[in-house]
Write a structure and sequence with these properties.
This protein is an alpha/beta fold. The chain is built from eleven helices and ten strands. It has a six-stranded mixed β-sheet with strand order 6-7-8-3-9-10, with helices on both faces. The protein has a four-stranded antiparallel β-sheet with strand order 2-1-4-5, with helices on one face. The radius of gyration is 19 Å and the shape is globular. It binds adenosine-5'-triphosphate and magnesium ion.
């Protein structure tokens, strides 16, 4: 469904993505892991068209999306849902207006948009009265749920999750993991998740891909990654200070 071919991106002569290849099958949950600065966010921005890659292709259902005109890109974006890190909710809008933001922008009537927003909030386990609250009145975990409701509001085919559990307590993190699995089960969505949280990665992933210094250095199912003999992968998934990754950082 989503295929990335030889994607490169640099800034001011410094290569951040050095030829990324990744295939995400329809209905699959692919998790991208990798250390700080390895290029995860840049990759996501290139996929979403927020950054223009230097070279390579991003194919959605076989169609290259890297050189689309504005209108076609906008149409494509309606097939994507995005859970931004920290939720990125608009504080000046109520919860339901945040959830229904895309619908309202598309011209859906206010009463219909409100009804859909309340349904989506119920899907992520939030009561109807939350709809009229302000984001500033909510806890971090509730904000993530609202952001999730917004991500699924226009029934996307692919959802991108950027650090969905970062900053949450372990129980709330697991509730979010369960919601991600529920959306996959009930809506059949394809998803790409960026995370550092290995507990979450193991729980939600069909496949894990590891990004290191601008390249995908490993790809496999959860057991395959856990058994990987790649020392970079082993160091990362076990969170060890000692190992080749630290030496690579020191060498710079
Ligand atoms: N707009 C930009 N201009 C210049 N350099 C950038 C830009 N965006 C990202 N970079 C650089 O690209 C590299 C990768 O950044 P990126 O944000 O993708 O890291 P990351 O893997 O998401 O890290 P983290 O886990 O900390 O979020 C960094 O060295 C960063 O400084
Ligand atoms: Mg990032």
């Amino acid at each position: 469904m989503l295929e990335i071919r030889n994607l490169t991106k640099g800034f001011g002569g410094r290569q951040v993505l050095k030829g990324i290849n990744l295939s995400v099958p329809k209905g699959d949950s692919t998790v991208i892991i990798g250390g700080s600065g390895s290029g995860k966010s840049v990759l996501l921005k290139c996929i979403l068209g927020l950054l223009e890659p230097d070279d390579g292709q991003v194919l959605v259902d076989g169609q290259d999306t890297t050189h689309l005109d504005e209108k076609t890109r906008y149409k494509l974006m309606t097939r994507f849902g995005m859970l931004f890190q920290n939720g990125a909710l608009f504080d000046s809008l109520s919860v339901w207006e945040n959830v229904a933001f895309g619908l309202i922008r598309e011209g859906t009537s206010e009463s219909k948009a409100h009804k859909i927003a309340v349904e989506k909030l119920a899907m992520v386990g939030l009561a109807a009265h939350v709809a009229d609250q302000a984001p500033s009145e909510l806890s971090g975990g509730m904000k993530k749920r609202v952001a999730l409701a917004r991500a699924i509001c226009q029934e996307p085919e692919i959802i991108f999750y950027d650090e969905p559990t970062t900053g949450l307590d372990p129980i709330t993190s697991d509730v979010i993991n369960e919601l991600i699995l529920k959306l996959k089960r009930e809506l059949g969505v394809t998803s790409v998740t960026i995370t550092h949280d290995m507990t979450s990665a193991y729980k939600i992933a069909d496949h894990i891909s590891m990004l290191f210094e601008g390249q995908m250095i490993a790809y496999g199912t959860v057991p395959e990654i856990q058994k990987s003999d790649n020392p970079y992968v082993q160091q990362f998934i076990h969170g060890r200070a000692d190992g080749p990754i630290k030496m690579a950082v020191r060498a710079h």
